[in-house]
Design brief:
- This protein is 38% helix and 23% strand.
- It is α/β, with parallel strands linked by helices and 309 residues long.
- The longest helix has 28 residues.
């Protein structure tokens, strides 16, 4: 019987996600056993610098992908929003299970919604995307970086370092914490999600045909199509978490996909937002990105890069 080694970051959330995937696979077949290998990534170790200053979210996957190349692990479970838009040679996203809530959430000490926070309130977020959209709606607020896992960020909020923090709903859903701590779910009209937010990416070697076949059993086709549109949008913009880029796609009737995309300046004052509907996810992602670039998003992305350098 083959033992499949699953690579995971060490955080509680990452381990919950990995164990959930293992449970889904174990329900399908008893031909395999599974074990989890915890891997420390650079993004987890460096917590005193914002992600945009140390190379982006690819820092959460590079060590894990190295373990795949060196055959220390057979597959890896990632949060899709942590995945770079370009895949390295020899590795593939084998499947994307059904997405959970893609929205962002606001958590505040005073149980105040975004519109109710007092002027000058400090909002913590590790994401330029979230910060830009918060400022677009409330330019009178202060946005400050906050790093660490979910527990750490919530503790910093309770300790008074921030008046509010913004997190992905998906992580809280998977931890079973949404009912206890969420002040407000931020709808995409207010805060458009990150590419792939709420979805998991299961990565393996492209030559592991046995594992590819197994993972295909837990792939959710609707999620795969919508996330593919979002990733095509991001890839065409040549974006990462170092730039305030957002995208969210939904399946509609007749196998069509509706994609909404956003490119913003860091302060949220300059924004390019658009929608595209089509059957081919890759095509609509590329097309929408090209439209926003032609409208002026290219200049905004260049200014953001210059500001961060």
């Amino acid at each position: 019987m083959r033992t499949i080694t699953v690579g995971s970051r060490k955080s509680n959330l990452a381990l919950v996600q990995s164990r959930w995937v293992i449970e889904q696979l174990a329900e399908i077949t008893d031909r395999f056993t599974f074990e989890v290998k915890k891997i420390s990534t650079k993004g987890d170790r460096i917590l005193d610098v914002t992600l945009s200053k140390i190379g982006g979210k690819g820092l959460f996957v590079k060590e894990i992908e190295r373990a795949l190349y060196e055959r220390e692990i057979d597959m890896a479970v990632h949060s899709m929003k942590d995945m770079p838009s370009e895949m390295p040679d020899g590795l593939v996203i084998a499947c994307i299970p059904a997405r959970v809530d893609p929205r962002d959430v606001l958590i505040t000490r005073g149980n105040q919604k975004l519109s109710e926070l007092p002027s000058g309130a400090v909002v913590g977020t590790s994401s330029l995307r979230r910060g830009a959209q918060v400022l677009a709606h409330r330019p009178d607020l202060q946005v400050e970086p906050v790093r660490g896992n979910i527990d750490t960020r919530i503790r910093k909020l309770k300790d008074g370092q921030f008046d509010a923090i913004v997190l992905a709903a998906a992580g809280l859903v998977r931890m079973g914490w949404t009912d206890d701590i969420v002040t407000e779910f931020l709808e995409p009209s207010i805060c458009l999600p990150a590419v792939g937010q709420g979805a998991l990416a299961i990565e393996c070697r492209e030559d592991d045909h046995e594992l590819l076949a197994l993972l295909g059993e837990i792939n959710d086709e609707a999620t795969f199509r919508t996330v593919s549109a979002e990733r095509a949008f991001l890839r065409t913009l040549d974006g990462s978490c170092q730039t305030p880029i957002a995208a969210f796609a939904e399946e509609q009737d007749n196998n069509r996909v509706k994609l909404t995309g956003l490119v913003s300046s860091i302060d949220g004052k300059t924004r390019f937002r658009g929608e595209k509907i089509g059957v081919d996810p890759e095509e609509i992602g590329v097309s929408l990105a090209e439209e926003l670039l032609a409208q002026g998003a290219r200049d905004v992305l260049a200014e953001v890069k210059e500001e961060l350098d």
